[in-house]
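This part of the workshop introduces the protein records we will be handling. An example says more than a description, so a record of this kind follows:
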Amino acid sequence: MPTMPPTFRPRGLSSAEAERQYDRERGSSTERLYDARWAREAEGHRHAHPLCVYCDLENRVTVATLVDHFWPHRGNRDLFWRREFWCSSCTACHSGMKQSVERQGTAALEALAARLGLPPLVPAVSGEAVQADGRLRLR
């Protein structure tokens, strides 16, 4: 009777080992700015804006479960605390649609920001990487 060919598994780290290494290098949530202050501020934001802004674009009403930093802050403390870019979101939108848009790049994020009525991303502090048109460069 025919059998399946062996599964190719390249040498190196297993997927579980690679994930553990990534988590170690990534740092703790506190090191990534998600501390008690953030928990208080995010709770206040969800209280003031209880519905998912992404579901609202599709005319759905869904309770927000988290606060999304619309522009990926990547450890930039100034961008992290810019409240005008905080968006109440449900987990499904944050983990699905929003991450899909982020993978498409800056132009896709800018288009979504326009649909949400968010202001354009401009540097709040000198020393940030700025493009020729004055917008903050995302890496």
